[in-house]
Specification:
Elements: H1 2-41, H2 43-46, H3 60-72, H4 74-87, H5 101-107, H6 116-127, E1 138-141, H7 146-155, E2 160-163
Parallel strand pairs: 1-2
Helix pairs in contact: 1-3, 3-4
Length: 164
């Protein structure tokens, strides 16, 4: 009888050790997966070319991945948001457009000025929306470089800006 009780007790210790071992592996696996997700969720890692942006629309994918990190690991999630906001990598990149030579020829009159009706038609064709360049508050200027456009935007805050 004594031998059978010892065997049962030993068997229970072995089962407990196996349970603890499984639990340890599950916790370690969960932590590894969480840390991997958190590392890849950071906009700084996914979009390093976005560093330096100061604002704009938030990138829903980066926000969602950071939020997952926030749910599972609070402190790393907060750090991921802080890093992405401070680096500017959480923001979607600003869009810009440039006209092709053919498009420039279509909207340029013989005297070198921009034909506003042709420009309105081109914008409608490209974007599928009507634009009234004759409306009050709309200013159309010809720019030679991106620096000129940036300087104009910084010096004034027009409601609508069409730069060529």
């Amino acid at each position: 009888m004594c031998y059978s009780l010892c065997y049962v007790e030993f068997n229970n210790k072995e089962e407990n050790a196996m349970r603890i071992n499984r639990l340890s592996k599950a916790i370690a696996s969960g932590l590894c997966v969480g840390l991997i997700l958190q590392t890849t969720a950071c906009g700084t890692v996914l979009y390093p070319e976005r560093k330096g942006q100061t604002g704009g629309q938030l990138d829903p994918a980066v926000v969602a991945l950071n939020a997952v990190g926030l749910l599972f690991f609070f402190v790393p999630g907060v750090i991921a948001f802080a890093v992405d906001f401070s680096n500017g990598t959480i923001y979607l990149p600003g869009g810009s457009a440039q006209l092709t030579d053919e498009q420039m020829e279509r909207i340029t009159r013989a005297d070198g000025q921009v034909d506003q009706e042709a420009l309105e038609l081109l914008v409608k064709e490209e974007l599928g929306m009507d634009v009234d360049l004759q409306a009050s508050g709309v200013e159309v200027r010809s720019m030679q470089s991106a620096e000129q456009v940036q300087a104009l935007i910084q010096s004034r805050q027009p409601t609508t800006l069409a730069a060529l």
